[in-house]
Amino acid sequence: MGKKAYEKEGAVAAPRRIAMTPAARRALDAAGRLFYERGIHAVGVDLIAAEAGVTKKTLYDRFGSKEQIVVEYLAERDERWRSFLAGYLAAAAPTPRARVLAVFDASRDWAADRSEKGCAMVNAHAEISDAAHPAYPIITGQKAWMLALFTDLAREIAPDRAEGLARTLVLLHEGGLVAHGLHVFPEALDQARDDAERLLAGGTELAGSGR
Amino acid sequence: MGKKAYEKEGAVAAPRRIAMTPAARRALDAAGRLFYERGIHAVGVDLIAAEAGVTKKTLYDRFGSKEQIVVEYLAERDERWRSFLAGYLAAAAPTPRARVLAVFDASRDWAADRSEKGCAMVNAHAEISDAAHPAYPIITGQKAWMLALFTDLAREIAPDRAEGLARTLVLLHEGGLVAHGLHVFPEALDQARDDAERLLAGGTELAGSGR
DNA sequence: CCAGAAGTAAACAGATCGGTCTACTCTCTC
DNA sequence: GAGAGAGTAGACCGATCTGTTTACTTCTGG
User: Fold this and answer.
1) What are the pLDDT digits (tens) for A30-52?
2) 8 Å CB contact of A191 and B164
3) Which residues contact A186 (CB under 8 A, 6 or more apart)?
């Protein structure tokens, strides 16, 4: 059996296409914040430059196009999430159940201060129609990777029904992110974590203690 | 006790602000399709006019602004979803369990040919940052209404843990829509429905038969 | 028969979009 | 000390954006 998904190396394709000079760093930070908060199409390159304290020429010298800034934004966010998650997985008890719950813990903490508007990949997908867009594989890649991660963990818990278990975990996880981002109810990711815990406990009823 | 959420009258505020002349109808249909497929900010009024076979003057005579077209698009989609869902609820066996599953059935059928890119409200939310935007209450209103619907049904199933049960159902439902829209795995809403079924069956393990 | 509503066709306006370009400065490093 | 790389400042380009306007047509109800 090969490596686990979460042990494999990070994101999609090339590690870093852009020379991250200080100005490029500030620009990408500003772009990321603006893209996430206001949406990709709603943010112009002039605004990014102004917010970053950088000229448009520098922007285009470093990134070449707005599309490339978008790609870097999503690729970097993807990398950071995987790295953030890896820390939680490493710190968790070495049982598959604890590791599954560590994913939900990571999401809760990540969402609390970096994902107030829901999943950046889901939100970007809403604005990117063309499957040929260079950012597309980053978006779908992260979701596929999360499913693979849950599947690996589920296989250690119940090999005979790993796929179904993993898919249920994906539903709870994505549902938690949406409910969090749209403020459907408070602490949605705690709810998702508790549901996952009851799910893994098995036998007992799933939605036991009304949170 | 008052009426059930799904028995209450439809959407938010005024029933219809716009005189739906034939040209306005074509325009709103075209706008809805384009907004959903390509994103709101990516679609200009010239494109809407061209696709609808309508002049820009007519667009502005009827709707007054692009923002208002967006509002009408979301309000109408919300109304149609609630009406679509009401049909499934009316056709379902009069037990709360059957009604919950009817919601997932409705979502599966709705998503199959009208929601290939996920929930329109979630996608619109990704593009609308300002909570003061007139479309905002439509988006959050639909999510709150769905939670209320699940809560009403959950109360008939298990009054002592209705809130937790309803929230779990929301997670599965929203998760199913996201997984469907991003093609995380096939037939995500069937998975969500089956998970809901196992959840309502209680006692047994949730992710039993790996779908 | 005619008034008004609904529509077409197309030019127009000002702002903003993504992107380019020139000219100059600063700071390293060989 | 010369050249290269990274940066600022800001003008500029054509395209596109939302929105407006003028002039004319077509249909319908009293």
Assistant:
1) 999 999 999 999 999 999 999 99
2) yes
3) none
Q: Between the CA of A63 and the C1' of C28, what is the distance in angstroms?
A: 23
Contact residues on chain B for A199, CB-CB shorter than 8 A = 206-207
Tell me, yes or no, if A189 comes closer than 8 A to chain B by beta carbon. Answer: no
Query: A117 in contact with B at a CB cutoff of 8 Å?
Result: yes
Q: Answer positive or negative: Cα dihedral of B98, A168, B143, A143.
A: negative
Cα(B163)–Cα(B67) distance, integer angstroms: 36
Which long-range contacts does A134-137 make (Cβ < 8 Å, 24+ apart)? A134/A67, A134/A68, A134/A71, A135/A67, A135/A70, A135/A71, A135/A74, A137/A12, A137/A13
Whether residue B37 lies within 8 A of chain A, CB to CB, comes out as: yes
pLDDT, one tens digit for every residue, chain B (211 residues): 455 555 555 555 455 678 899 999 999 999 999 999 999 999 999 999 999 999 999 999 999 999 999 999 999 999 999 999 999 999 999 999 999 999 999 999 999 999 999 999 999 999 998 999 999 999 999 999 999 999 999 999 999 999 999 999 999 999 999 999 999 999 999 999 999 999 998 743 344 444 4
Supply A44's token pair.
Answer: 């112009």
Q: Hey, what domains does chain A have and what are their CATH numbers?
A: 5-201 (1.10.357.10)
Hey, what long-range contacts does B25-30 have (CB within 8 A, 24 or more apart)? B26/B52, B26/B53, B26/B54, B27/B52, B27/B54, B27/B58, B27/B59, B27/B62, B27/B63, B27/B69, B28/B69, B28/B72, B28/B73, B28/B76
Q: Which of B38, B103, B108, B178 would you mutate first to test chain A, the one with the most A CBs within 10 A?
A: B178
B127 chain-A contacts, CB cut-off 8 A: 39, 41-42, 126-127
Q: Which two tokens stand for residue A15?
A: 């590690």
Give me the phi and psi of B15, to 5 degrees please: -70, -45
B62 vs B58: CA distance, rounded Å: 6
B158 φ, ψ to 5°? -150, 85
* The pLDDT value given to residue B204: 36
The residue among B8, B16, B19, B48 whose CA lies nearest residue B32 is B48
Indicate the residue of B117, B161, B202 with minimum beta-carbon distance to A210: B161
